[in-house]
Sequence to fold (96 residues):
Amino acid sequence: MDEKFEIKKESEQSDEKKTDELFEKMKKLIAEKLEVDEGKITMGASFRGDLGADSLDTYELVYAIEEEMRINIPDEKANEFETVKDAYEFIKSQQK
Fold:
């Protein structure tokens, strides 16, 4: 097998593992802060509609994510998070 292909394949697997770890961390935080079962938390889940978050819940969740992930989420950006995927994509972009 081509050595470059092997390196790329390992790199892609590493990225996928980081993705899975990030989503798992997020699921735990969301489940804890919103008091919902982790099974309900999917990328497409809506914070307000599917997970029952109100504005205070959302604020507390954003604060917890900032603390856990060691990132800063501007208020205007946090207000754009409608689904778990929205938050996930932003957090992922900040961790590079």
